Amino acid sequence: MFENLSERLSGVFDKLTKQGALSDDDVKTALREVRVALLEADVSLPVARDFIKAVQEKATGQAVTKSITPGQQVVKIVHDELQHVLTGDADPGALKIDNPPAPILMVGLQGSGKTTTTAKLAKRLKEREGKRVLMASLDTNRPAAMEQLAILGGQIGVDTLPIVPGEDPVQIARRAKTQAGLGGYDVYMLDTAGRLHIDQELIAQAAAVRDVANPRETLLVVDGLTGQDAVNVAQEFDDKIGVTGVVLTRMDGDGRGGAALSMRAITGKPIRFVGLGEKMDAIETFEPERIAGRILG
Ligand code: GDP
């Protein structure tokens, strides 16, 4: 998911580590190249700027340039700073699902991968934590989306709330809550309607559902391929509805990965999971240590 960035950085670092002695100017030149690589990966400008500034402060001066392996020192500082930028919760994959039935609200734009992610997470909760999960589609505008969730539920062996034509999203959310309580479910997941753009109606609907369900987690699903747009969408959803975390999908594609690096720094919200394909197992928790490692090759 970070192939291009990773390649660019390893080029810069190879030069640095081969060089032996380093001057502050050498470090500055290298960091300028790192900055360009970050921007090309679609990391937002303020985030890239702060990143370079932090590294520069730590990597110039006697301690580094006069050390025995200055190049490696600089690489380590970049690594630590990457991890710092990415750091979210200690355990991003741990969903708050105590007090059953725990509601999880899934929000996001149409096509972001929301329904797929809902099913992937339900499968994960079922298989890894032995939870009984109920999924409900609230997308009353698109019967096909409701059907899609039911089909995925059938595939992964997770129950879905029966579809009752004519109900509005708030009514469905209420019915899901009642059903989850009566049926002894640990978790119920509400897959809200998506739209192509954030508009008043989308926000009003998600907010109304939120108020009825009082979710333990509100997860925003965004398409990782959309780069900085993903970060803007996250910011707006968080301002208007409040989210507890982000799921970045399509990180299996050849996107530039910058959204992942800017997300936490700009929105203050952690990336909790990344989607890595269409299959129901193609989801992973977002672990800063591992991601930083992957970027640095
Ligand atoms: P929704 O409109 O937000 O509910 O989006 P869907 O869940 O219907 O997903 C739209 C398309 O994206 C489907 O074809 C999914 O299989 C695909 N998709 C979802 N997540 C991922 C992912 O992480 N990687 C890839 N490659 N495709 C994904």
From TrEMBL:
GTP binds at residues 108-115, 191-195, 249-252. One of its GO terms (biological process) is SRP-dependent cotranslational protein targeting to membrane. It is a peripheral membrane protein. Keywords: Cytoplasm, GTP-binding, Hydrolase, Nucleotide-binding, Ribonucleoprotein, RNA-binding, Signal recognition particle. The keyword Ribonucleoprotein applies. Residues 270-283 form the SRP54-type proteins GTP-binding domain. GO terms for cellular component: plasma membrane; signal recognition particle. Its main location: membrane. Its EC number is 3.6.5.4. It is found in: Cell inner membrane; Cytoplasm. GO terms for molecular function: 7S RNA binding; GTP binding; GTPase activity. It comes from the Bacteria. It is an enzyme of class 3 (hydrolase). Coiled coil: none annotated. The keyword Ribonucleoprotein applies. It catalyses: GTP + H2O = GDP + phosphate + H(+). Part of the signal recognition particle protein translocation system, which is composed of SRP and FtsY. SRP is a ribonucleoprotein composed of Ffh and a 4.5S RNA molecule. Involved in targeting and insertion of nascent membrane proteins into the cytoplasmic membrane. Binds to the hydrophobic signal sequence of the ribosome-nascent chain (RNC) as it emerges from the ribosomes. The SRP-RNC complex is then targeted to the cytoplasmic membrane where it interacts with the SRP receptor FtsY. Interaction with FtsY leads to the transfer of the RNC complex to the Sec translocase for insertion into the membrane, the hydrolysis of GTP by both Ffh and FtsY, and the dissociation of the SRP-FtsY complex into the individual components. Belongs to the GTP-binding SRP family. SRP54 subfamily. This is Signal recognition particle protein. It comes from Yoonia sediminilitoris.
